[in-house]
Amino acid sequence: MQDLVNKIVKRYQTDKTRLMDILLDIQNERGYLSHDDCSELSKKLKLSTAEVCETASFYHFFSCKEARYRIYLNNSITSEMAGRQLVAEAFEEACHTSFGETSEEGLFFLEHTSCIGMNDQEPAALINGIPFTQLTPFRVKELISGLKEGKSLEEAAYESFGDGNNAHDLIHSMVNNHIRKRGAILTNDYKPFDVIKNKLCKRSPEEIITIVEGSNIRGRGGAGFPTGLKWKFGRLTKAEHRVIICNADEGEPGTFKDRVLLTEFPELVFEGMVTAAFATGADIGVLYLRHEYKYLLNYLNHVLDNMRKKSLLGNEINGCKHFNFDIRIQLGAGAYICGEESALIESMEGKRGEPRDKPPFPVEKGYMGYPTIVNNVETLASVVKIINNGAAWFDSMGTSDSAGTKILSISGDCLFPGIYEVEWGTTINDVLSMAGAYDVQAIQVGGPSGMLLSKKGFDRTLSYSDLATGGSMIVFNHSRDLLRDVVLNFMDFFIEESCGSCSTCRIMPTVLKDKLLKILNGHGVKQDLEELVSWGKLLKISRCGLGQTAGNPILTSLSNFRSLYEDLIQQDKEFDTGFNLEKAVVESCNFVNRKPVFETKNLN
Amino acid sequence: MADTIKIKIDGKEIITAKGKTILEAATDNGVYIPTLCHFPGVPPKGSCRICTVKVNNRFMTSCSTPVADGMTIDNNHDEIKDYRKSIVELLFISGNHFCPACEKSGNCELQALAYRLGMLVPRFPYSFPNKEVDASSPKIIKEQNRCILCKRCIKTIKDKEGKRYFAFNRRGNHLEVVLDKQMGQAISDKLAQQAMENCPVGSIIYKGKGFSEPIGSRKFDKKPIGSSIEE
Fold first, then answer.
1. In Å, how far is A358's CA from the nearest CA of chain B?
2. Rounded to an integer, what distance in angstroms lies between the CA atom of residue B6 and that of residue B46?
3. Which CATH class is domain A406-477?
4. Domains and CATH numbers, chain B
């Protein structure tokens, strides 16, 4: 017991800022986090046990329940649309347990989980970190009985591999890339590492920043901050060390582009990090990889090792004097909020992923207090092509205020879900048409934190001045109940993923959801619709983007699909108690075979 | 004096020093900005959001935002006042706060803010959550029904090595502040009393003699919260 904790703590030099890695390693070797391990760990790190649990209990994939197979079934909306309910029941039946519980013999642990980045191949689940996609009740039965008979998870999973690198020896996954449309970034027209070898050292860091600024590229994660400016700020702050972080914690439901970029173009992403390091003078590099993509870890480390061997990482990169930079991979443990850059940094320091107050921004004071530049996977991949082909080349694509291309993750009710790289300026109509989406009722642009668009908005364009987006597009046809299925699912997502720090974001989404339920249950009146809008405004004063947008599923559907709400409310009432006495006593009256004393009206 | 700067709060010009937060500058100059999670002397976290002001038309928490020359700060806008009241109401409905039966009544900052901001009844429906009371420590009762998750105890109550007695557990609407089981057994009377005093509400109760002042003559029974700043 003590030996294991001791060994792992030593692996990280008893450094409590590496608590995430330490907990991950313990869980990896032990299968779960026991109270004794946490208590032992707290002694070693000079923390209270409550402090260790404070970090551990924040992350979804840390578990104190012992089980041989941990099954996390995705509960995102496209999973529901692809028959998740039946798959969930099949798991419960086959494993003889229910969600949130462990089966009697300690073999299976079942749990729901937020979007795992497989929206184009649902229903999907992670079993001990291995993705199982396009599940059916039949497949679940087969899978679980195979495991019970003693088949290994690998044997159960490897019936067929996905396309491209998914079949690589170090990945061996059934996941598919589904690249449907290639543009400037996804085209294989570039020999990896040409920029490091031939472009970087010949120029000054300032020149590189000028090129990036000239390309007008903005952050691809969704917030859209100008990348060149971010690098400039990072460079300006005087410090002993500077840090480049690649944010690969894409958690916005419906986004899976970074998964594909990291599967097929990891060289481009890492080269982008080296370029950013050269431009800003950074020496520390970290790829923060979401836990859901742990199955790519070995392959990504292999790519990094190859780069080190070729002197593309390490000291004096490519013979360039004083240019020292290396990259390590930090694994997350399941928290959407860690996609927010300051929460990500907190997580990297071994803490809960609670966003920081700004100012100071990470470019001034980030990881361990050093100036830190956090860039999205897609941004970093784009930068390499910008340096290679020039700023003007990139800026000539897209619109006047949105340069270049955007990689979209399209899923839901369409014939061809997958990855599409389009120029900014593309309309929603074009998006729907290229994905083979017909009979469309609505499209969710930018995931749950974005907006639900109705037909009226389909001629709007993807751009920073119109529909700015991180690229998640979920299509709904007319068979979908937007409020009952879609909006409720999104609200549950925000309620589950809030860090809980801000009072507003911790409490208000539940209040709004309860009001939506009241309306859905037929108790709504006009005032409820007004209150949804006025109460929802409070979320705007939350600290981070999650809190500020947590009411969007309700607020944007209310503004774009108002008639759906109006059809549900009682037109003849100003006030509803939320309780119908006559209806409530019907069952008991029937049971005792008596009629209620009041006049029975139509009780539906 | 070096680094003096000028800011404006609700039209009133204030001369203050660089490096201060908006809250500190306001307090120094007799302007009251309500706070809950803030505790002087420890780093702010801006989590209750009640000290939100509008700075150059953007919402910022005054406890965590440093002043800058020429800042125009709105602390008295109807919108802001309503947001603050909403937050107090949210804190009331998300827990089980029964003031008449609470040991902290009269010394409770949440109750005092509700009075000061004019809350009669929360506009939001009560949720009446099931919360536990942890009385396992010989010195402290941790009353989860009243906890507003401000983090003050987490930030201020530590042992000589810097180990924390209190910590967050879980996240989102399951979030709670827990007392470390082992450390809770050994906590000193002094620290336990300190924890109770630092708690803005009645969530941390010291076992034994808790209060010498009777209800009616306590801190906020005499004057509304914030009065001492405005005088």
1. 7
2. 24
3. alpha beta
4. 4-76 (3.10.20.740), 84-208 (3.30.70.20)
